[in-house]
């Protein structure tokens, strides 16, 4: 598709938004960094990008990322000070006016980063820094509308702060709602209202997006386009996303609303098979990133690549000849900037390094579930039932990839990756029918189960009890968390471990799992 | 790490079903080759098979092969039930005696079905490629009354290793009962990989 044609197909609201970054920031700082810190790895090299990701389950459509040259020509992100977003009823008096009086303040100066602690601190700033002020998910008018909070059942802190988005002050009077900070999807408001950074987030993001599309009066065409940018994978068997688009506006909005807190239709995944938002606490020890293990994680550079790719350069990937936002290779490499959220600038290598150091430094809160007689007997059941083989202590994962039903492991993968050659039989949709799908599901770590949920890669089960409930295997089951928008009941298949235990043993097993 | 939990033991040839499969393939091939080669092949097979038929008869023991391995501190008991042995053993003629066994790893049972299936896979027995386990005696020596030590060659997953197996014989009339126990290191045979929870050692008990 020609870019002009592509642009003309964009929804108006998005189109209008494209000018905003210029208004907000002027042009981003160009590639000059203040100094070069020799330890900071250069991550996006053509060599490294070649085989860092696993192939797609449909290998001809494996992602081809932008080139090293393209990447390093993108301007680096400038990090401004941000301010919390309050529920309108809780906003301190005069706060809004005060924000508009402020000048922009640049809070991250890479030349001042020297020690490991400096990097971790900078990483926390970056973690909370939105990469988008174009309204990629929600915008000012939504968060200043009380209905937004009720429609989405938005979790709030006791102060009434909505911690998933921030105000960015880009200059006097220029107050923008920032989207897509890591905190948006990787922060959890706990039952007591405290915030746990890095935990499986509980941002009801797809409900929020549905609210935004609906109250903005987005047209059917606009909704189809944006949904296609995010999730289309026309090369997947049966093209489930193409079918979703064809069902029209209301059905698509329903599909967004069906995604529960704790899962999010990240670009390249799906709202039909939404990925659980992973817990980043402990991610340092995981060998594969994403539920399908798309990104290898052999060292900090891989983590930096992952962050950069997913914020959001994967929109520029080609999958065969297909590009999600309708670019051609000529257009991509024409030298003209591409105004799509997250794709016209990038984090600097030092920023990525800081982010990675910060998420590596995350540690779990103290577990209130202390070992008891019950949990100790659960520990033995955990070993007897063979859970240990896959969920091997001390990480409670063997860090391996299990093929999903219907995926034949290519011989070469046994030498290249860590394969545990047996399917646990869970829903293959995410890993067989999305841009990020690899044909595998990784064995997740069970650390921190007590502070998270819903469970399984598609967040289909709200409670650990549900995982061991044989009723879930039947077609008349109503999934307790994610349930596809177009069905009333659905079996949650697979992972049939520990299901035949008696009630007492299940209790003990769960008591043990909650101590991890 | 891995499911391991298990391991092994004794003896040659796959199940009957496997033989048939192999024969079918062969016929298919032979259809494409000329008569003389066919005759040659048939003759070869004749000489390969006949010695087997002539020597002691093989039989399927009642007791399965048993094994034990520690996984996360818990001992997992497993069985391999489809196996057969061929015994030609005379305590007075040890040099002429022989014991051979073959077991079908597909018949492994550890109490968890998915685990058994995983053990069939290429990280463990890789049964598609290695449809049987074999154990073949090389020599025997006596170790007191009714007690012997045999040097055997154990083959699992295409890896052959010699090992010493102490065993006992109890004889009632013509009926001989053998019992042997030994330990192997599963890693020697490429059964799974080093694991934090699964021990390397597998204790095997064979009785027939």
SSE class of chain B:
alpha+beta
DSSP strand count of chain B: 11
Our count of domains of chain B comes out at 2
Output the radius of gyration of chain A: 22 Å
- Largest protein interface? A-B, 23 and 21 residues
Shape of chain B: globular
- Given the helix and strand composition of chain A, which structural class is it? mainly alpha
Keywords (chain A): Heme, Iron, Metal-binding
Organism (chain A): Belliella alkalica
Protein name (chain A): Cytochrome c domain-containing protein
Domain Cytochrome c (chain A): 168-363, 373-516
Q: Overview of this structure, please?
A:
The complex is a heterodimer of chains A (516) and B (208). Chain A is mainly alpha-helical and 516 residues long. Chain A has 3 domains: 3-38, no CATH class; 49-361, no CATH class; 373-399 and 443-513. Chain A contains 23 helices and 11 strands. In chain A, the strands form 5 sheets. Chain A has a 3-stranded antiparallel sheet. Chain A has a two-stranded antiparallel sheet with strand order 1-9. A two-stranded antiparallel ribbon of chain A has the order 5-6. Chain A starts with a helix and ends with a helix. With 208 residues, chain B is an alpha+beta fold. Chain B has 2 domains: 5-55, no CATH class; 58-207, Lipid/polyisoprenoid-binding, YceI-like (Lipocalin). In chain B, strands 1-4-5-7-8-9-10-11-2-3-6 form an 11-stranded antiparallel sheet, with helices on one face. In chain B, β2 and β3 (74-80) form a beta hairpin. The A-B interface holds A 380, 382-386, 388-390, 392-394, 398-400, 414, 419-422, 424, 496-497 and B 1-5, 71-74, 112, 114-115, 117-118, 121-123, 195-198.
Walk me through the topology.
The complex is a heterodimer of chains A (about 525) and B (about 210).
Chain A: H1 3-9, H2 12-17, H3 20-25, H4 46-51, E1 63-64, H5 68-73, E2 82-86, H6 95-101, H7 116-127, H8 140-143, H9 146-152, E3 161-169, E4 175-178, H10 182-186, E5 187-189, E6 195-197, H11 205-215, H12 220-231, H13 240-246, H14 249-257, E7 288-289, E8 295-296, H15 300-310, E9 318-319, H16 329-332, H17 349-361, H18 373-384, H19 387-390, E10 401-403, H20 411-416, H21 429-432, E11 440-442, H22 464-467, H23 503-513
Antiparallel strand pairs in A: 1-9, 2-3, 3-4, 5-6, 7-8, 10-11
Chain B: H1 16-30, H2 35-54, E1 58-59, E2 65-71, E3 74-80, E4 83-88, E5 98-103, E6 108-109, H3 113-120, E7 133-142, E8 147-156, E9 159-172, E10 175-185, E11 201-207
Antiparallel strand pairs in B: 1-4, 2-3, 2-11, 3-6, 4-5, 5-7, 7-8, 8-9, 9-10, 10-11
Protein name (chain A): Cytochrome c domain-containing protein
InterPro entries (chain A): Cyt_c-like_dom, Cyt_c-like_dom_sf, Cytochrome_c_Peroxidase/MauG
Keywords (chain A): Heme, Iron, Metal-binding
């Amino acid at each position: 598709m020609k870019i002009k044609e592509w642009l003309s197909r964009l929804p108006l609201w998005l189109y209008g938004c494209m000018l905003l970054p210029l208004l907000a920031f002027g042009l981003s700082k160009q590639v000059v960094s203040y100094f070069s810190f020799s330890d900071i790895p250069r991550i996006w090299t053509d060599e490294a990008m070649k085989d860092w990701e696993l192939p797609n389950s449909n290998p001809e459509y494996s992602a081809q990322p932008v080139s090293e040259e393209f990447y390093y020509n993108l301007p680096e992100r400038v990090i401004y000070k941000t301010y919390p977003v309050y529920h309108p009823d809780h906003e301190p008096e005069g706060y809004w006016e005060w924000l508009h009086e402020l000048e922009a303040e640049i809070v991250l100066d890479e030349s001042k980063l020297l020690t490991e602690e400096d990097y971790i601190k900078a990483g926390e700033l970056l973690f909370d820094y939105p990469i988008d002020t174009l309204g990629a998910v929600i915008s000012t008018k939504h968060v200043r509308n009380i209905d937004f909070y009720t429609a989405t059942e938005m979790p709030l802190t006791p102060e009434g702060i909505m911690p998933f988005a921030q105000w960015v002050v880009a200059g006097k009077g220029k107050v923008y709602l920032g989207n897509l900070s890591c905190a948006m999807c990787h922060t959890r408001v706990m039952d007591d209202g405290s915030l746990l950074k890095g935990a499986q987030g509980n941002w009801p993001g797809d409900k929020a997006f549905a609210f935004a599309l609906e109250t903005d009066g987005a047209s059917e065409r606009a909704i189809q386009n944006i949904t296609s940018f995010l999730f289309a994978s026309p090369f997947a068997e049966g093209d489930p996303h193409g079918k979703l688009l064809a069902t029209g506006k209301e059905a698509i909005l329903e599909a967004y609303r069906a995604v529960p807190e704790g899962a999010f239709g990240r670009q390249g995944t799906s709202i039909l098979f939404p990925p659980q938002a992973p817990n980043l606490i402990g991610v340092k020890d995981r060998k594969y990133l994403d539920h399908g293990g798309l990104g290898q994680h052999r060292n900090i550079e891989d983590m930096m690549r992952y962050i950069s790719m997913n914020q959001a350069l994967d929109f520029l990937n080609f999958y065969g000849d297909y590009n999600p936002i309708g670019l051609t290779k000529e257009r991509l490499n024409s030298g003209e900037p591409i105004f799509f959220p997250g794709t016209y600038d990038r984090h600097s290598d030092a920023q990525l390094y800081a982010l990675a150091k910060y998420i590596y430094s995350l540690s779990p809160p103290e577990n209130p579930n202390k070992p008891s007689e019950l949990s100790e007997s659960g520990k033995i059941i955990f070993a007897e039932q063979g859970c240990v083989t896959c969920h091997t202590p001390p990480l409670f994962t063997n860090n391996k990839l299990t093929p999903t039903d219907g995926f034949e492991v290519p011989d070469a993968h046994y030498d290249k990756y860590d394969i545990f050659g047996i399917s646990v039989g869970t829903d293959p949709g995410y890993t067989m029918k999305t841009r990020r799908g690899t044909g595998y599901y990784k064995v997740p770590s069970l650390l921190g189960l007590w502070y998270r949920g819903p469970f399984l890669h598609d967040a289909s089960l709200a409670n650990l009890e549900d995982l061991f409930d044989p009723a879930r295997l039947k077609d008349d089951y109503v999934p307790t968390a994610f349930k596809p928008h177009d069905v009333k009941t659905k079996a949650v298949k697979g992972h049939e471990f520990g299901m035949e235990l008696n009630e007492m043993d299940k209790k003990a097993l769960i008591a043990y799992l909650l101590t991890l | 790490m891995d499911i391991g939990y298990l391991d092994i033991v004794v003896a040659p040839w796959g199940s009957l079903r496997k033989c048939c499969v192999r024969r079918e393939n062969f016929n298919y091939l032979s259809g494409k080759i000329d008569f003389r080669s066919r005759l040659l092949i048939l003759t070869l097979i004749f000489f390969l098979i006949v010695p087997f038929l002539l020597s002691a008869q093989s039989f399927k023991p009642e007791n399965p092969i048993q094994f034990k391995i520690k996984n996360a501190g818990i001992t997992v008991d497993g069985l391999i039930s489809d196996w057969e042995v061929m015994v030609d053993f005379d305590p007075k003629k040890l040099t002429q005696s022989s014991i051979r066994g073959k077991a079908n790893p597909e018949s492994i049972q550890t109490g968890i079905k998915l685990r058994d299936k995983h053990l069939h896979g290429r990280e463990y027995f890789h049964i598609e490629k290695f449809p049987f386990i074999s154990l073949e005696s090389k020599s025997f020596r006596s170790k007191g009354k009714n007690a012997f030590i045999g040097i055997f060659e154990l083959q699992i997953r295409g890896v052959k290793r010699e090992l010493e197996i102490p065993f006992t014989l109890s004889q009632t009339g013509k009926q001989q009962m053998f019992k042997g126990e030994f330990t192997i290191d599963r890693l020697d045979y490429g059964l799974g990989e080093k694991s934090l929870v699964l021990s390397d050692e597998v204790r095997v008990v064979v009785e027939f």
